[in-house]
Amino acid sequence: MSASVPRSPQAPKTARPWHALEGREVLQALGSREEGLEPRVAAERLEALGHNVLSRRSGPSALRILWRQLQDPLIYVLLGSSLLAILLGKGTDGLVVLAVVVLNTLIGFVQEYRASRAIASLSEMVPLSALVLRAGERLSVSTAELVPGDVVLLSSGDAVAADMRLLSGRTLQVVESALTGESIPVPKRPEPLPEGTPVADRLNMLYSGTLVTQGAGMAVVVETGERTELGRINALLGGAEETVTPLTRQLGVVGNTLTLAILVLAVVLLAVGLGRGYSLPDAALAGITLAVGAVPEGLPAVVTIALAIGVSRMARRRAIIRRLPAVETLGSTSVICSDKTGTLTRNEMTVRALWAAGRRYRPDDREDTDPTAELTETALTRGDRPLEELLRAGVLCNDAGLRLEDGRPQVSGDPTEGALLLSALSSGLDPEALRRACPRLAAIEFESERQYMATLHGGARPAVYLKGAPEAVLARCDLGAAEREEVLEEVGRLAGQGMRVLALAGRDAGGLRTLEERDVAGGLRLLGLQGMIDPPRPEALRAVREAHAAGISVKMITGDHAATAQAIGEQLGLGDRPAVSGARLAEMSDTELDAVVREANVFARVAPEHKLRLVRALQAQGRVVAMTGDGVNDAPALKQADIGIAMGITGTAVSKDAADVVLTDDNFATITAAVEEGRRVYDNLVKSLAFLLPTNLGLAMILAVAVAFFPIRDGEPVLPMQPTQLLWINMVAAVALGVPLAFEAHEPGLMRRPPRRQGAPLISRFVLLRTVMVAVLMTCGALAVYLYEAASGDPQAALRGQSMAVTTVIAFQVFYLLNCRSLEDSLLRIGLWSNPAIFIGIGAVIALQAAFLYLPALQTVFGTVPLGVRDLSISLLVGFMVFPIVNLEKALRRQAHAGQRGT
Ligand code: ATP
User: Fold this and answer.
1) Which tens digit of pLDDT belongs to each residue from 447-481?
2) Where is this region: Disordered (predicted)?
3) What's the whole-model pTM score?
4) For residue 23, how far is the Cα from the chain centroid?
């Protein structure tokens, strides 16, 4: 068959008015046919035309990032100060300030550049595939491998991955917002259109980047990669991923307020200096030094890095972040609403119980199956017709595939349908032979909203088969009241054991050639039930426990039967309250709903629109909601949730598009892992703040105390450290010590704390108190060392005193950094060596400080003198004091917290 497919490796080079041609002309022009390309031709075209991908959306350009660094108000303050110092004749000081500016801009730039690259590349990792026909065979290929001429089968939820001409299908609706900004679906038709039709009105064309929201159809690829309409737009825009999150915005506000406050303080200090008899240049320099020294320049870089680390660690744990704010929102998640099938359970369905014409059967001899039920194989051997028909319907009304791999049967497609194939196979039927004998003529595909699937078959005895949720199927069957009662009782019995129950029905085809919903609206004969188990994932069980310990509620939301859902919910540790059905949700008032969502953890037979209402009800209680979804109609709920989570394997492209996070393994445990990472990121930011802020406040205080109270000798103010030295400390702290905390591992008790309050201030009372306490300690230490050393009044001793004061502050920072590695726990608990970045930072600081003290060039710039062992020991000892003091504070806080928990 495939031999007759034309073999031109090259698709035509010039763009043709595909929309004006008939479908078969398009196929011909592309050297293809309805059965699709021959695999070899497809491979040759791929080689010749390249992959169907757009040039990387590379995020903001390097220049743009650099420009952004320079737009910070802090930078203006620093530049202005530098200029002022130079104008006032304090050249060295001015240049040091300039060095601070250059260094900070560079660091900020390098870090933000790397982070934005990491973020830009991660958002593209969501894998997508397309269903194509190649030489008549259906194949799922990566969208990157599509070539012109490929015949693609599209169905609701798919992303259109290349520009295509529709060949058949009348029900297709497509959202083209990626191209047109319009979010209302456009119906597509395969008929040719006049040649002059504008792109937006070409109803027989499908464009890359758009999403199929309804229906199904077949289309042929006409353009791929950069040559698609989207490719052209992409080339124009170049793409710019914003890296602003609520946190960075909040930090921006903090930064601006701080800058303003610091400017005011600087002016006050200048006035105080002048009032005490400082010369204008000296007073101005004091003001400038305060301005520069008090600004936490390292902070923006720390935030960007912490977020970027969060994104890449989450990716490693199989959660791909599509929108950056999700990193921090994940950390404050207080309720996770999860699908059941495949997320909390394995989605490995196995039929365990069958029921036909009042008799019970079991497909195998496992211990946990009902021993009173008859083995299906035995029943078939004795010629049990009802059972045979039940199994037969399960095979025919079924899209799953079956093949043998190493002699073992393997199913592909929907696991629910796979289970039906296997139940027939293990009972001794031959599914392939059955399908050949009764070819399918038409079908109504399964959709969650409809809850059933129906097929029409030809062959010796043309028939219609229907399978689906018992409610949906029974409603279409002719059944007496007693019979219905009996069936429902059996459904309840099986579902109560956690089984998913499918009902199957059928009737003669009666001359039907096509199949519409009205053809299966009634008059069917119930064939029986098949009950299948889908065990919970063991890791989901652990993850639910972990979420509960972390104060996060877990709600299971499923399309399954209430009894099935409740039984699985119990197995997962979600309590034994009865499941609330979607229908009940729909008729509740908002107040009722509010009460119900507080208590209930299991929701069954839920339709996508109920999910939206659930999310809103939870959000109205002030909860931060993470919600999973995989279908097209889940998109609104995913968008409404604080964290929308899509499934990477089974999810539709539409749901992935609407989500903030995509799970590459569809696993519930990955959600809790991502929450843990989110908490870690936030913790590390708090740690960085708790480290950086006291340093800056301390430096400002040292200077302020000196200007206000230290004497003026021979017109020269006496200072515990020179302005350039103070700037040195600020620089070193920002470079080497601020950033490593962003790499800190998570704390032992991280997932045993309740979630962070939504909207809690970034600079909490704790950070504020700690900042003041540590700044006062640092000021006292530095001043004490200087005064002790310089007391003699000898100028050399005064110089040494200054160098010692600087070294004391640096030592102080190194020890305080160790303190900051955990907010509450002692260093021993989290492990001294668990974060190597800290020691790289400390090593760098020691090297820099040695250069500062002993390199002649730096001695000239900074006015330092080499220190001996005695001097160093004094500085180290005083610097060390912070360590036990903060540890004591932590112990007291731990005790207070334990007390609170105890009561
Ligand atoms: P969850 O919401 O927990 O992930 P789900 O999405 O698998 O569950 P649906 O797919 O909406 O739930 O299934 C709802 C019901 O439809 C099932 O309980 C089952 O009775 C029926 N059903 C599921 N799959 C099929 C199918 N392929 N054909 C016919 N009926 C089905």
Assistant:
1) 888 899 999 999 889 999 999 999 999 999 999 99
2) 362-381
3) 0.80
4) 41
Structure tokens belonging to residue 543? 């993850």
Instruction: Quote the CA–CA distance of 840 and 266 in Å, as a whole number.
Output: 34
CATH classification number, 350-533, choose in 3.40.1110.10, 2.30.29.30, 3.40.50.300, 3.90.226.10: 3.40.1110.10
Residues 6+ away with beta carbon under 8 Å from 452: 444, 446, 466, 467, 468, 469, 472, 473, 476, 520
How many degrees, rounded to 5, is the angle at CA 339 between CA 624 and CA 665?
95
Q: Mutation test of ligand 1: which of 448, 455, 491 has the most ligand atoms closer than 8 Å to its C-beta? A: 448
* Positive/negative CA dihedral, 860, 865, 867, 871: negative
H/E element holding 446?
Answer: none
pLDDT digits (tens, 9 = 90+) for 152-198: 999 888 888 899 999 998 788 888 876 776 667 889 999 999 988 88
**pLDDT tens digit string along 516-564?**
999 999 999 999 999 999 999 999 999 999 999 999 999 999 999 999 9
**What is the CATH T-level fold of the domain 91-112+244-317+677-902, as seen in this structure?**
Calcium-transporting ATPase, transmembrane domain (1.20.1110)
Q: To test ligand 1's pocket by mutation, which of 560, 605, 632, 649 has the most ligand atoms within 8 angstroms of CB?
A: 560
Q: How many residues does the chain have?
A: 903
Mean pLDDT score of the chain: 87
What's the rounded Cα separation, in Å, for the pair 107 and 120? 20
| Residue in 577, 621, 620, 581 with CA at minimum distance from that of residue 604 | 581
282, 339, 560, 657: the active-site residue = 339
Q: What are 888-898's pLDDT values in tens digits?
A: 998 898 888 77
- Ligand 1 first shell, C-beta below 6 A: 339-341, 414, 416-417, 446, 448, 451-453, 467-469, 500, 502, 558-561
Q: What is the DSSP string of 4-62?
A: GS---SSPPSS---GGGS-HHHHHHHTT--TT-B-HHHHHHHHHHH--S-PPP---S-H
Whole-angstrom distance, CA of residue 115 vs CA of residue 105: 15
